[in-house]
Amino acid sequence: MYALKVDPELCRQCPTIDCLMKCQHIRLDLETARKERLKILEGQDSRVLKDCLTCYACEEYCPYGNHPFYQIVDQQEEKGIWPVPIPLTKQQVVMMAPKGRAAPEKLAGPILDLCYFPMLSKTIRGKLYEGVSTVVGSDIFCNIMWLHFAKNSVIRERLPKVIDTLWGFYLKENGREEVICYHDECYGTYTHLAPAFGIPVPFKPIHLFEYLVERLEALKDQIRPIGMKAAYQRPCSNRLIPETQPLVDEIFKRVGVERVKRQYDGENALCCGGVLKAMQRDDQVEDLQKRNLDDMQASGAGLCVFNCPFCLFTLGEAAANRGMMPILMSELCQDALGEKLMMGG
Length: 345
Prior knowledge:
By secondary structure, the chain is of the alpha/beta class. It has 3 domains: 8-79, no CATH class; 94-212, Rossmann fold; 220-336, Rossmann fold (3-Layer(aba) Sandwich), CATH 3.40.50.1860. It has helices at 8-13, 18-21, 30-41, 47-51, 57-61, 68-79, 86-95, 152-171, 184-196, 208-218, 246-255, 274-278, 282-298, 309-321, 329-336; strands at residues 111-113, 133-135, 178-181, 204-207, 228-233, 257-259, 303-306, 325-328.
């Protein structure tokens, strides 16, 4: 079993307890936060284990990279504190299991990993993705979603097999050492979560935004600036990889979109609320989404841009009802290249 790499002394000596003090959902004074942090570290009951909304943010807040959120999830599972009702958790564990259908495949060009979102396959088209091959399916599902369900054991069991499948059947088979990760979850899994658990990754993950910037540079003479203001809905899994955030600004700049200044952005971003719905915390969902959407609307945004498909499914209609067109970052770039003509131009 892969063990989480944690240095307990870093937590014991931490003067600020940023992982809890910066939390947007659990309010604690410094002394209480220190006590609750030590409880988690020592395997004792803590109110944090019950109150956590599993937004991943404390992974970003920790200045030492000591994985406070992964520790919380481990403790939740060990103590049987299930964020999502057990019947739904069991159903999802079965439904999202690998199907064993992957097989070696000859692929040309760069390889793009769509994780378990086959519905996105038709969006990988046109000049933006010229020459790209895609892989998708349950056998390469990154499994990071189990952090929301207090199921690190499922990640430990399934992720090494996923990595072996992606590497052995698709990358190594085609002489590739890199894979483009469409979803923040996959990139975060391979660059942050897997190393935290000591799970080896034999290939180099490339974030979708890195690829998009490269393609936009190559196609810069064909870009027609969109000329709109946009709010960006940062996905929870991006908390694991905050170093990719400047790429959002770079893409917006290249396609002629202004990223609006607002309260709930960057480190202060609020999650879409989809996971809270599964947790049946309906009152918190309503408050969270209202604050987030009010903030977007007040900023003057005409677009609500997503990278996570689940966030789009959860918040897209509500954003549209507020007069903000929901769109995936990938499609935004295609629009700027005249491949979808969102603006009717």
